[in-house]
């Protein structure tokens, strides 16, 4: 599998394009600058299947409708944040931007952890709240990778001072869910460089 990291927008929020050998792709967190995502998809002749949101803060959803409309693909989001897409206070744009960010409702709401199959992809969904109430992480065993959103960063963790955030909940999520993954699992975070479970267990000062 091939993973392309695209830091997008003023906060350099990482959007990821995960491609398999059939050129099918999943798109994680299309935060802004839709044209950057289009370029990757079309230059490689990829076939988008779905958009997976780790959570629904404004910097992760800014290009959501543009991308889904161009490829006519569904959006997955945890049910605890089903109202965030249409609420600029909940998604944070009303608090941090001079403009409000909105998107249409998700096509599929995630209600529990477990396996998810999309095309030829098999993922495991982990509920990892704390940064936000509906934060999830997507583990792709075949790629030895987890897309952690803003739960776990390289030597950092997500902020917990936004609506619905809770520090103790986030620490529990990381230790009980993400740290249960194999140590060689690569961690693709919502911001910053990739890391690994092994490295974060040893070097993350918050954990």
TrEMBL record:
Alphabetical UniProt keywords: Hydrolase, Metal-binding, Zinc
GO molecular function terms noted in the UniProt entry: hydrolase activity; metal ion binding
Cited InterPro entries: MBL_Glyoxalase_II, Metallo-B-lactamas, RibonucZ/Hydroxyglut_hydro
CDD domains: metallo-hydrolase-like_MBL-fold
Family annotation (SMART domains): Lactamase_B
Alphabetized Pfam families for the sequence: Lactamase_B
SUPFAM superfamilies with a match to the protein in the record: Metallo-hydrolase/oxidoreductase
Metallo-beta-lactamase domain location: 12-191
Cofactor: Zn(2+)
Official protein name in the record: MBL fold metallo-hydrolase
Organism: Gottfriedia endophytica
């Amino acid at each position: 599998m091939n993973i392309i990291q695209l830091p997008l927008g003023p906060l350099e929020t990482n959007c990821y394009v995960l491609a398999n050998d059939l050129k099918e792709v999943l798109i994680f967190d299309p935060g802004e600058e839709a044209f950057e995502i289009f370029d990757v998809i079309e230059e490689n002749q990829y076939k988008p299947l779905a958009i997976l949101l780790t959570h629904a803060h404004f910097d992760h959803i800014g290009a959501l409708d543009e991308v889904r409309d161009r490829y006519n693909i569904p959006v997955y989001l945890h049910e605890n944040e089903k109202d965030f897409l249409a609420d600029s206070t909940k998604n944070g744009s009303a608090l941090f931007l001079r403009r409000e960010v909105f998107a249409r409702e998700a096509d599929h709401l995630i209600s529990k952890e477990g396996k998810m199959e999309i095309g030829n992809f098999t993922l495991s969904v982990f509920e990892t709240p704390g940064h936000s109430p509906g934060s999830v992480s997507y583990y792709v065993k075949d790629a030895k990778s987890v897309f952690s959103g803003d739960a776990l960063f390289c030597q950092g963790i997500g902020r917990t001072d936004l609506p619905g955030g809770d520090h103790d909940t986030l620490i529990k999520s990381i230790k009980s869910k993400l740290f249960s993954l194999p140590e060689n699992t690569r961690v693709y975070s919502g911001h910053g460089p990739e890391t690994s479970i092994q490295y974060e267990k040893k070097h993350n000062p918050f954990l």
